[in-house]
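Why do we bother with holo predictions? Because pocket geometry can differ from the apo form. Keep that in mind while you read this record for 6-O-phosphono-alpha-D-fructofuranose.
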Amino acid sequence: MAITEDGQYITFGQHIQQQQQYFPSASGQFSWLMSGITLATKMIASYVRRAGLIDVWGDQGSTNVQGEEVKKLDIIANDALKKTLGYRGNVGIIASEEDDEPRVLQEADADDSYIVMFDPLDGSSNIDVNVSVGTIFTIFRNPPEVEGAAKSVLQPGAKQVAAGYVLYGSSTVLVYTAGNGVHQFTLDPQFGAYLLTREDIKMPEHHGTYSVNEAYLHRFPEPYQRYLHWSKHPEGGGYKSRYVGSLVADFHRILITGGIFMYPPTTEQPNGKLRLMYECNPLAFVAEQAGGLAFGAEGKRIMDIEPKDVHDRTPLTIGSKKNVEEAMRFINDPVKIG
Ligand code: P6P
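The structure, written out:
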């Protein structure tokens, strides 16, 4: 249910204002920037909700820098974010999964300029079959001392100012953190406003579900295979499996009910499939703020990884603290245990 203060709904904008007390240095620029993201996601939601009624199914006819078929809605979502962020005046650089290189939007003044990176519509191939999709975003400060957009965006996830996602699911929910807890807002289509529906979300410490595409089991490194064998074995974890195949949907379920999501290295993609900067870092920030954990290759904390390129990929193991610690005991210790 929407959370209210003396009967008044708390909108996203009000919540950001309330949060400013924790960031005395904030000059209101951050909330202005966030209003650009929320506006874009309301526009995206309006298209997603009418897919089929308007011509947004299917491919746009090109492939992106990832070599993936671009869906019509990918372009719409990407354009919506670039346009709304472009008018914010304090966004110096944007980087998108859909664009080859980070773009300098404007040479905003260094002291309150931000970088916004996003996956405009993750899982867009699910649109045609009505499965949930999501927008994932992350915000960094634009370092005045660093020359050039390509270098400015290469910051470890630990330097994120804020991050989150919008899940276009049974309802449209915005989940974000600015380093002071994780909060969820639900878009009320009548008001056209995001209303607070969960405050200071804490991920359950453990839950008996794992989320991985088991079709690739035999392509995973052996320690991952042993963990997955253990996790479902009645004398091991005895866990159930849940896998939507849309990262934001799988992650949001784990944020609320607990469990673990993995996209391991495979023989075809030894660095994994998911993107560090605008998929794994934002979700890792949310997960850690909610009491969870997120690791990449060789047991490295996702938010400690120093990126080499804006489109770097990384394996991902993320979720409830105890579930991830269990998995990392297998992954970090190739010696047969259990
Ligand atoms: P696979 C969607 O294409 C995506 O990027 C994520 O949303 C999702 O978690 C993953 O790929 C699914 O990949 O290889 O299981 O189809």
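Residues 122-123, 125, 213, 245-247, 273 surround 6-O-phosphono-alpha-D-fructofuranose (CB under 6 Å).
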